[in-house]
Amino acid sequence: MSVAKGFGRLELPVDTTKTAPSDGQRPSATEDLAGLIEHAAHYLPAQGPITAFVHHNTLHAFEDSPFEEGVVKGAELFGCHAFLPESRYRAKLDRGRITPEDIEAVLQEDLGDSAQTPAGPAGTRLQLRLGMLNHPMRTGPTAELRWVIEQTSALNRFQDSTPNALREQSIQATKHWVMRDFGDGSFRNADEKTRRMLDDLFLRFDRGELDNWTDAAWEEFTLHLLWLACREGARSVGGATDAQSGHQPPIRHTDLLHEVSGIDCGDWVNDLLIRFCAAFLDQDFAPTPLPAREKGFLSAFKELYGRSSAAADGWLNAAGPELIQTDNPLDSIARSLTDLGVAPDEREDYIVQTLLALRGFAGMLWQTECRSDRVAKPTPKGALAEYLAVRLILERAALRQAAAEGLGFRAPLAELRREATRHFVRHPESDEQRAFQIFQLAQVLGWTPAQLTDLDADQWRNLIAEIGSFSGMERRRIYHLAFERHYRRETLDAVANHTRRVRETDDITQPAERPSFQIVTCIDEREESFRRALEEIDPDCETLGAAGFFAVAMNYKGAADAHYTPLCPVIIEPKHYVAEKVVYTHKQTERQRKERRRTIGTVTHQVHLGSRTFAGGALAGIFGSIASIPLVTRILFPRLAARLRGAMGGFVRTPDVTELELTRTGENPGKEPGQIGYSVPEMADIVERLLRDMGLTKTLSRLIVICGHGSSSLNNPHEAAHDCGACGGGRGGPNARAFAQMANTPGVRAIVAERGLIIPEDTIFLGAYHNTCDDSVTVYDLERLPSSHTGDYEAAWAAIDEARKRSAHERCRRFESASLNIDFEEALRHVEERAEDLSQVRPEYGHATNALCFVGRREWSRG
C-alpha cells in the first residue's frame, strides 16, 4: 500500500503479505486497522530482550527495495543519517581513502548516457557534479551567507580550492572582456542587466585608473562581478521559489504543534508511557507487580489512570473518562483518528509515525507479544494495538490543552492541522543561497562573468535545477559509493596478489589427504583469527565455517537455568526442547547445591527489597562501604578477583559432569506444541544438512570438533550482542554439543549412510565452546571420547591451545590497553583480565572491525 503524499508523508514499501478476503468482500474498518497496525509493526525495532540482544538488520522493513533506496527511506522514516556527513567523506578524500578517480568513475556509472548533457556555461552534468564533489561547497542560512559576502575575503580573492590555472584564466578573461568591450565606458555592447551591474561596480572601483589596476584589484573586480552575475541569475528565476519548497509539515499533530508553538505535548505523553511500559514489561524484578497486568495493556492502564486524580496533570484527568469507556482498542483507534481529522489514505503513515514516536518500548511490546518464547513473562496478546489506542487517547487530551496554550485554539481537533499549518514556516531556499552555490562552483570550474551573463532565463533555470537535484543526500550517496569502490578495489587487488603468490610459489601448504583434525566454527568474523592461527600452527588441519547454531534449532535449558531459551536464528521458532541434566552420580550433590542457590537467591532478593525501606536504607548506608572492596578488587586485580569468585562459588556451582536429554522422550515442558529431544530421523536430517551445506561429505578426519561461540563480560548489559547471532543472541556451545552427540549416534550414521553420506567408523565428533572475549575454549563430553582417540585429541588440543593465544595476540593490536610488543602468553592473560575487569564496559570490540566477508571454499582464502 502506497501512502499518498502530503503533510510530510513518505512512500512506504508494499506489504505483499496482506491479501484480500477470499469471499471478495472488503475487510471491515477494524480488520483494516488491525492489518495496518501489524504492517506498521515491521518498522519497529526487531530487537530481542536484553538477554538475547542479538544484532539484527535495522532495514528489515525495506528488504524489498534496492539497498540505497532502502537506506534513504529508513533514514527519512527513522530520523537518522543514511550516509556519513560530507565533512567525513572530504576528510577521507584528503587522506586518499577516496580519490578523484573513484568519484569520477562512480559518477560516470551513475549518470550513464546523461553524463555529457550540457549543464552550466560550457560544461556537462558530469563536470558540474564533479566540481560539487571535489571541492567543498559552503552552505548556511541567508543571513550567514550575507555576512560572509560582506565581512570576509570572499569577494577579495578566489577560494583556496580553486586551481591556480583556472584562477588566472578567469581573471584574464574578465580583464580582456572589460577592456575590449567596455574600456571606453560606453557599455555599448552590454545588455541592460550587465550595464546596470557594471555601473554599480564602477562606483566601487576607479574606472579612470582601469589601465593601472594591479593583479589584486583585477582579482577583486572579477569576484565582485562574478557574484553580481550569480545573484542576478538566481533572481531571474522566479519560479524556483514557490510556496511548496522547503521542508513539509509533519503529519502528526503533536509534531506540527511543537514546530509552530514550541510546546511539545508529545513529551507529556512519552513521560507517562515510558514509566508505564517499563512496569508493564517487567520480568518480575520490580518489588510490586503492576495491577491487572495479566489482563492486558489497556486494562492495566485503566486500572492506574482511568479515574481522575488530584495529583495528575490536568490534561491526563481529561483523558480519564474516555479511558474508562474504552473496551475495544481498534474501535478506540478508529474514533481517535476520526476526531483528529486523519483521512483514510493517511492512516497507515499516521499509525507508523505514532508507533515510532516511542519506538523502543513499542518494539519491545511487539516482540514480547509475538515471540513469547524469548522472555520468561510474555506480553498478553493485542498489547501493541492497546498501546496505540491508549497513546492516541492521551495525545488527543494533551493536544487540547497544548493547542489552547500555544495557539489559543479551542475548536475541534480535526481542524488543528489546518490552523497549525497556517503558522508553519517552510524556509525555502533564498536567492542568496542559490547564488552563493553558483558563485563557489564558478570559481572551481572556471566559469567567467561573461559566460554567466550570456545565460538566458531557461539556461539559468536548468542550471539551478541541476544543482538542486544534486542535493546533500545525493552527494553523500556518491561519496559513499566512491569510498566503497576504493576499498573494494584495494581488497580485490590484495586477494588477487595473494592468489597469484600462492599459485606461483605454492606458499600455502595444502592440508594432508586426510586432515589431522577438522574444526567447524561459526561464520562469525571473530572466529577468523582463531581459524587462521590453527592453520598456521597445524597446516594439516582443516577449518570450516557454518551458521553457529549448527542446524540444531532448539529451546535449551542448562542445569542451573530457570527457563528454556531459544538457541537459533530469530526468524525460527524452535519446536524442540533440550535440557542439560547432571549425571546420576552427582545427583545428590546437585540437589544440595541447588538448595544453596535457591537460599542465596531468596536472601539476596529480600535484602534488595529491604534496602528500599527506611531502616533497610539506613543499614545499606552504614554497611554499604564494605561492597566497595570487591568492586575495587575487580578493577585493580581482575584475575585475582575472578579466581576468588570461582573458588567461593564452587559450593553452589553445577557439577561439571552433565549430559543432554537429546533423545525424544514424548514429554514436553508445558509449551505446546513442543517435544523434549529429537527422534533419530530428525537427528539424521540435521546432521546431513549441516555436513552437506559445508561440503563436508568426504575425507572426514578421525576427530571433528564442532565449536560454538559466545562472549562474556562483567560490566556490559548488552553482553548478548556479542554472543552468537545464529543462536538468537545465545551461546552456541549447547548447539555444538548437541550436534556432536547426534553425529556420534549409530542410528543417525546408518540413516545418513543410506542417503549416500558415509561417516567413517573411526570419525568422532566433539562439541566445544569458544569464548571470543577471553579466548578460552571448553570441550564437552570428554568422558565419552574413546581411548583410541586420546592421541588425536591431545594433538588437536595442543594446536587449539596455541591458537587461542595467537588469536588473543592479534586482537590485542586493537586495544589501547595492550602494548604492541606483547607476546602470546601475555596477550592471553591480557584478554582474560579485560573480560574480568569491572572498568571495561567493552572488553571485546566485537564486530567493530569487520568490513567484508568471503563466501567460498577455504582453499582460495586460506592464509
The helix tally amounts to: 32
Distance linking N and C termini: 50 Å
Give helix % range.
40-55%
Strand content: 5-15%
Principal-axes shape call? globular
Q: Could you walk me through the main structural features you see in this protein, from its secondary elements to its overall organization?
A:
The chain is mostly helical and 863 residues long. 50% of the residues lie in helices and 6% in strands. It has 32 helices and ten strands. The strands form two sheets. It has a five-stranded mixed β-sheet with strand order 2-1-8-9-10, with helices on both faces. Strands 3, 4, 5, 6 and 7 form a five-stranded mixed β-sheet that branches. A hairpin with a 7-residue loop joins strand 3 and strand 4. Helix 1 (29-40) packs across helix 15 and helix 4 packs across helix 22 (472-505). The longest helix has 34 residues, at 472-505. It is globular and about 110 Å long. The two termini are 50 Å apart. The model is unreliable at 1-23 and 240-244 (pLDDT under 50).
In summary, what is this structure?
The protein is mainly alpha-helical.
Which labels suit this protein?
mainly alpha; five-stranded mixed β-sheet; 32 helices; disordered N terminus; globular; 6% strand; 863 residues
Please specify the SSE layout and strand pairing:
Blueprint: H1 29-40, H2 67-78, H3 86-95, H4 100-111, H5 125-134, H6 142-151, H7 164-182, H8 192-202, H9 215-236, H10 253-261, H11 265-280, H12 297-305, H13 314-325, H14 329-339, H15 347-356, H16 359-370, H17 383-407, H18 416-422, H19 431-445, H20 449-453, H21 457-469, H22 472-505, E1 518-522, H23 528-537, E2 542-546, E3 554-557, E4 565-567, E5 576-582, H24 587-610, H25 614-623, H26 628-636, H27 638-648, E6 658-661, E7 675-676, H28 680-694, E8 703-710, H29 733-743, H30 746-754, E9 764-771, E10 777-779, H31 790-811, H32 824-836
Parallel strand pairs: 1-2, 1-8, 3-5, 5-7, 8-9
Antiparallel strand pairs: 3-4, 5-6, 9-10
Helix pairs in contact: 1-14, 1-15, 4-5, 4-22, 8-9, 9-19, 10-17, 10-18, 11-17, 12-13, 13-17, 14-17, 23-31, 26-27, 27-32, 28-30, 31-32
